Amino acid sequence: MPLQVELYLENCCDDSSPIPPETWENWFWQWLEILEDYLPTAPSYEISLRLTTDTEIQTLNSQYRQQDKPTDVLAFASLEADLPQSEEMLVAMPLYLGDIIVSIDTAQRQAQQQEHSLSTELAWLTAHGLLHLLGWDHPDEESLIEMLNEQVVLLKEIGIIINLEL
Do the annotations mark residue 128 as ligand-binding? Predict the structure, then answer.
């Protein structure tokens, strides 16, 4: 399954992500294999991942969700928009799934609280964002538990074991 991942690391950390771009691409590829039933048919897929600061994510959270506070992850699904697509576009161009934005600042705090690594927390939050891009949501406790359990499956696929206590 061809996949393009755009990785933005501006304003997020000292020199680079604690996770190399090649690892991110591999993780997304593995996750999309598992989530294939939730994907529309396309020749390839494109995802934008931006690792940022609490300041930037707070601005986005305020602008798009009317919540003037930082959050850990935001996901903007392009599949929710009715974008015109011609037959040629569906054959020739990657299907853009959307944007996942993760605050490194919040991820670091949550990693310390959960007593695991920043890389584990970033993977956890990014998997959560990916599920949102594919239409998953958690308006109630039951759907939240289902989504969190799917995140555990996704992380296990990439070799990260999370003990989820609900």
Answer: yes
